[in-house]
Records
---
Amino acid sequence: MALETTLILFKPDAVAKNIVGTVLSRFEAQGFKIRGMKMLFLSDEILADHYSHIADKPFFPSVREFMQETPVIALALEGDDVIGRVRDLLGPTDSKAAAAGTIRGDFGDKEGDAKMRNVCHASDSPEAAAEEIKRFFKDGEVF
Ligand code: ADP
């Protein structure tokens, strides 16, 4: 078991549907601790950085447009094995393929944009988490 911190983004679909608190309560119910939280609008620059692994995909412009529909809420969340456990709680990228009981299965879009409007981003490794926390939080904003 490892004490880790992960970076979560509540995406614009979560903000628009008023389900941020509902999803956050699932994380808190696991005993995970909030170490940082803020609302911010994602610039083209930060999105190009954050999504550099998909920047050459044909769907990237629609992801960028989606991620700029509203400001997002960034969360630094700490807990034992939190990185993998949050990914498990979310379910797969495609909300249509996500089982009931997972966050994407319960709250993600099931039609059209199911692969994109999937409620939350969460870091997928300790290396990514460290990089992403630095990307979204300034010194002194994570406690
Ligand atoms: P995850 O967010 O589950 O780690 P990826 O890193 O592969 O998934 O993709 C980043 C984000 O890009 C996804 O969460 C989703 O919003 C969007 N995305 C991924 N694949 C597609 C696709 N085929 N069509 C549209 N959007 C996609």
---
Amino acid sequence: MSCMYPFELKPLPYDYEALAPALDAQTLHFHHDKHLQTYVDNLNKVLAPYPEYQNLSLRSLLTRLESLPQPLCTGVRNNAGGVFNHQLYFDCMAPAQQSGKPSQCLQDAIQRDFGNLEQLLSQLKQAALGQFGSGWAWLVTTAEGTLSICSTPNQDVPNLCKFVPLLLVDVWEHAYYLGYQNRRADYFDAWTTLIHWSLVSNIYESRASFL
Ligand code: MN3
């Protein structure tokens, strides 16, 4: 699996049917095989004329957007963001019976920073519903382990020098339109049953390695 140019489509970590009924196979097929594939292809296209940037990881590309030459900057922002965000989105879901629970360490942080898991999900839902148009709602942590919620438009990422993304929900219509049409709140509620808490806990506990 290539983690630098030329980037490759990472396989979906479960079967297309595995997240039903919350997310149907057709939605996952289009979302992963068509939408994510397009971001991968376009990222490779924008990097093709710039060999000097081809040895950078997704994360490195996204943390140095400001220093990229102008024609490359927008293409990387949209497409490296698209690949980074979708890879984490698909990884952070699991079939409902395998999704696990937050580890004790993450549970303690959730209690400290939100009161309880319901409050965390309620704030994440507000961020997801409040994101006008296309974008993402995120749970992130600082190096010290402080949790917070944010949202970003389009394929933008939070500041990856300050925050480690733990979990994110795609609120572009392509993520839910086939199953939920305009009902973003119903999609969000169904998505919460798929959160891969054991993976989110692992990222939280190894956050230092991402900064
Ligand atoms: Mn998407």
